[in-house]
Amino acid sequence: MVRFENVSKEYPKTGFALRDVSFHVRRGEFAFVTGPSGAGKTTLVKLVTMEERPTRGTVRVSGFSSDRVRRRDIPMLRRRLGIVFQDFRLLRNRTAYENVAFTMEVTGAHPEEIDRTVPRTLATVGLGGKADHLPAELSGGEQQRVAIARALVNDPFLLLADEPTGNLDPRVSLDILRVCKDINLRGMAVLFVTHDRALLEHHPEARVLELDDGAIVRDTAADSAA
Amino acid sequence: MRYTAREAFFAFRRSPLLTGLSIVTIAFALYTLGVFGLVWLNIERVLEGAEERVEVVAYLRDDTTAEESGALMREVAAYPEVDSIRYVSREDALARVREEFQEYEELYEDLDTNPLPASLEIALEPGFRRSALVQDVAARISRFPFVEEVRFGEEWVRKLNFLQDMSLFLGLVMGGIFAFVAFVAIGATINLVVLAREDEFAIMKMVGATPGFIARPFVLEGFTKGVIGALVALALLVATFSVLERRVLTLEFYSPTEIAIGVALGGVLGSLASILSLRRHISRW
């Protein structure tokens, strides 16, 4: 699934963002990645999406390996990931429905398939009634739900959420966490990156990977990890 | 495909001025090329007509005997360049002049002696009608002692050839300059659009759109601009042509195939300009 093998990432100007990081997120697993800002969480996300390549070590995501993947294969990798950001990144001039449909369009999905899949996915995140709303007409929590629907619509194997609650108040943050837990219960792996330690208490069964200064300082699954 | 078709005309709406400029410069590029191409084409037709008549005429001295001229004819007829050869006697020459210049008949009426020399009219094989080869044949014939003078239509053919080369050169250079401006205008349009939609492209990239998919609407748009530019150029050419034809002389216009090639060339130019200016951005997608 997602496997980091002794991964280090060094940036020319700022030095090491990750040092010798190893972990393995399995199919269907829910894992938090936490730590203070500057700990290397964002770098970790970029390595999973292969926006960055490691300086040392290997990142394996699904069938793709960072030391062998070709540039032109990376879009194929991204289609197998569902990515959610702190700032939602929705297209402002398009409705909730169109934002979700857009993801399918760019991957060349058939129009009929789009018409079938998008309403179902919006219903999954509890937005069935707001398909025609523009992002500006939706609350922050609703916008993030649209973003999650967009991430899910191509049926990825992993939902990669990068500080998805960073712009939301605590009550709405819990809503978003609940949506992610529901998705996980359906069998999809979730990598939930957050600096908000309070959230972890609301999903005590989840695995926690804690980063500090580029290194993993805690992995609650370390005992059972291979 | 739905996406490509829908997004292709984004720039038309976003920056009509720059889009218009792109189309106008492409039109100018093709129009310039078209005008000089027409010059080239029409000179070519004249030359083709002239080549049919390109022949070497060898005037014989008056004291040349029948045997000598017969031997010369056999020898020259054996040249590989020579298609046919015809002996024009002094009497034939006079008869021909009388027929061709009937208005001056009285000038020839009471001639005591025939002033015209006998000549050999040598027509060349189609492949040997270019000036250098004609000159070569003429030089060989002039070496025979009883050949007084050799003439061939060399000078004006060479001038026309030069004019033709010149129009091709000018057409390519000036057309090229306009094409370059068209490339710059199309590139500027693309930069503008890419800037305006950077967020959107980042999202597309994140959800797995290929660079080709993102680029496709731009290429379609460039192609469309090129074709429209070509059609504008064609309209201008037709207008120019009809004015010239009415005022000057019968000219030849492009064939339907050549017109189709010209329009396609516009499309290729527009697409190429888009692709070239996209390459810079695609490396970041």
Task: Note the main attributes of this structure.
heterodimer, A: 226 residues, alpha/beta, six-stranded mixed sheet, four-stranded antiparallel sheet, 27% strand, B: 285 residues, alpha+beta, 72% helix, 9% strand
Explain this structure:
The complex is a heterodimer of chains A (226) and B (285). In chain A, the strands form 2 sheets. Chain A has a 6-stranded mixed β-sheet, sandwiched between helices. In chain A, strands 2-1-4-5 form a 4-stranded antiparallel β-sheet, covered by helices on one side. In chain A, a hairpin with a 2-residue loop joins strand 9 (207-212) and strand 10. Chain A has 226 residues and is α/β, with parallel strands linked by helices. Chain A is 32% helix and 27% strand. Chain B has 285 residues and is an alpha+beta fold. Helix content of chain B is 72%, strand content 9%. Chain B is built from 11 helices and 4 strands. The A-B interface holds A 49, 72, 75-81, 83, 89, 91, 102-103, 105-108, 111, 150, 154 and B 2-3, 199-200, 202-211, 213.
